[in-house]
Amino acid sequence: DTGVSQNPRHKITKRGQNVTFRCDPISEHNRLYWYRQTLGQGPEFLTYFQNEAQLEKSRLLSDRFSAERPKGSFSTLEIQRTEQGDSAMYLCASSLGDIGQQPQHFGDGTRLSIL
Amino acid sequence: AQTVTQSQPEMSVQEAETVTLSCTYDTSENNYYLFWYKQPPSRQMILVIRQEAYKQQNATENRFSVNFQKAAKSFSLKISDSQLGDTAMYFCAFTLSAGSGYALNFGKGTSLLVTP
């Protein structure tokens, strides 16, 4: 169990640029989640995948955001035309099946700063 | 919609003492799970303890225990024999048992400082 891996750890970009984050879940975990955490707040749910299918998206996920999980393995989260309000920590978590048996395991996150 | 409220933004406790962190939640559902997560300064979220709503017995994990009051929709975390390594943000979280993909709803967190 190598844990959930997220890359990059930090991303600084200018407003209007596109950014892409990657998450590698724990192997054999079929569920993958993206959360956003702003300073002084708890994480907020963005979207989740079961295998390669994106099953739920939060209203926080505007049309500038897109997430993929090809082949049900790693996932990418892309933000197009970044805005100041996108500055946050983006957390990825993975789990196996029923949360009653397996909790969500979180990565270290990607901190996005918009200049 | 389910909401989670943590009314204590910051708390402090001396090493070896006991501290209780409060959490209340709001839901009309009957089956759900509650969690306490710890987020140390390194920022990785770590599960501390989990409670199934259908279980009346309070969950315990070593020095960590919960007081789950379903009727009051209260879920507090007690940390006994506090250690310096317990210093972290603590988040209370909620998820439904079905129908939501188990996405977690988090409170705003309580910053706990353990002092020597």
- Largest beta-sheet characterization of chain B: 6 strands, mixed
Our Rg estimate of chain A from Cα atoms comes to 13 Å
The average pLDDT value of chain B, as a whole number, equals 92
- Kindly estimate the percentage of residues of chain A that lie in beta strands according to DSSP: over 45%
Percent of residues in β-strands of chain B: over 45%
What is the helical fraction of chain B, as a range of percent?
A: under 10%
Q: First CA to last CA of chain B: what distance?
A: 41 Å
- How much helix, percentage-wise, in residues of chain A? under 10%
Q: What is the helix/strand order of chain A?
A: EEEEEEEEEEE
The radius of gyration of chain B is 14 Å
The largest inter-chain interface, given as chain pair and residues per side, is: A-B, 28 and 26 residues
Main pleated sheet of chain A: 7 strands, mixed
Shape of chain B: globular
The helix-and-strand class of chain B reads mainly beta
Strand segment tally of chain A? 11
Global geometry of chain A: globular
Describe the structure.
The complex is a heterodimer of chains A (115) and B (116). Chain A has 115 residues and is mainly beta. In chain A, 0% of the residues lie in helices and 49% in strands. Chain A has strands at 5-7, 10-13, 19-24, 31-37, 44-50, 53-57, 65-68, 75-79, 88-95, 105-106, 110-114. In chain A, strands 2, 4, 5, 6, 9, 10 and 11 form a 7-stranded mixed sheet that branches. In chain A, strands 1-3-8-7 form a 4-stranded antiparallel sheet, with no helix packed on it. In chain A, strand 4 (31-37) and strand 5 (44-50) form a beta hairpin. The termini of chain A are far apart. In chain B, strands 2, 5, 6, 10, 11 and 12 form a 6-stranded mixed sheet that branches. Chain B has a 4-stranded antiparallel sheet with strand order 3-9-8-7, with no helix packed on it. Chain B is mainly beta and 116 residues long. The model of chain B has no long low-confidence stretch (mean pLDDT 92). In chain B, strand 10 (88-96) and strand 11 form a beta hairpin. Chain B is globular, with a radius of gyration of 14 Å. Chain B has strands at 3-5, 10-14, 19-21, 24-26, 32-39, 46-52, 60-61, 64-69, 74-79, 88-96, 105-106, 110-115. Chain B has no helices and 12 strands. Chains A and B meet through strand 4, strand 5, strand 9 and strand 10 of A and strand 5, strand 6, strand 10 and strand 11 of B.
